[in-house]
Automatic annotation (TrEMBL):
It comes from Amphimedon queenslandica. The lineage of its organism: Eukaryota, Metazoa, Porifera, Demospongiae, Heteroscleromorpha. Residues 1-30, 100-154 are annotated as: Disordered. Residues 34-79 form the Zinc finger PHD-type domain. InterPro entries: Znf_FYVE_PHD, Znf_PHD, Znf_RING/FYVE/PHD. Keywords: Metal-binding, Zinc, Zinc-finger. The keyword Zinc-finger applies. Residues 1-17, 144-153 have a biased composition (Polar residues). This is Zinc finger PHD-type domain-containing protein. It comes from the Eukaryota.
Amino acid sequence: MATSNKKSVSFDASANTVRDKDQTESAQPPTGVRCVCLSVKDLGHMIEYEHCPHWCHSKCVGISQPVAKNYPFICPNCVSSLLKEVSSLRSELAALKSQLSNMAESSSEDPETPSASTTPALDCSSHSGPPSSPPSPTSRSKNQRSSPNSSGRRFNLIVAGIKERAANTQRAVRLKEDLEEISSILSPLLPSFNDHTIRDSLRLGKYSSNRSRPLLVTLNRTSDVATILSNKSSLANHPHLRISPDLPPHLRKSRSILLKKRHDLINSGSDRKSIRLTTDSLYIDNVKYGSVVNQMFRECPPPVSGSAAVPPSDYDHPTHSQADILLSDQDNS
């Protein structure tokens, strides 16, 4: 079918002249007739092919003149040629895929080719998190906050007590000041603190002019998280500040129950330093005193003389699950 910029022409077979609807002139079609009917005679209105310099009879293809003016028409021969080209391209693509697959198999079988087993890996003992990157207040680590059970929580800290600027303050200014304030608080708690320690920060909850929202701070290494939590007692002179691990809801509930029980024990005369917490249990002088079961604290029966229940082995190796252990010495004091 001819496009809108093409001329719709008609032929007078007896006079053998062409009458243009836009202007009348005596002329022959620019090229020969190549119609689907295989007739080379001029039988009235003609349509110019889109991809080749030929014409066809509009009646033979059943297209009206208004349609022929506004839409392109591709002849059957051109359609067939295009289909052959597509088929050829598909064959070439299949051959390339096969070649790539063979190369991949050869690479995996070649012992001299670097693979996952021979490629140097990151030293997990000194760097347990993702590669360091400059802090960017505007960046967001969605993978780490997309699910409450995400392992990305191990890289997070909750910092409460940092004053929040008014809502009409420019967002870039608020983010910059939050990052500077966080850095000034955490740097004394982490000897190795540098410009790459903090990956991201984000205010939690809905803005309120009556109180400052806590900050979710994401670090680049879990070891830094544990170190900061273990040194948070240095903030004793700043009672308005509070640092805690980013725990999932069920662990936050268990932690709340354990901290309440710990507070009661301290008020009843127990030595603060003798009490230790794990994820779901409370120990006094390394003897298990009780644990949280179904969101309720249950005391353990008195230990048999001579036996002592030592906290889990990870007690001596700070990890995310031990973050609340490290916190227990300072909370509810």
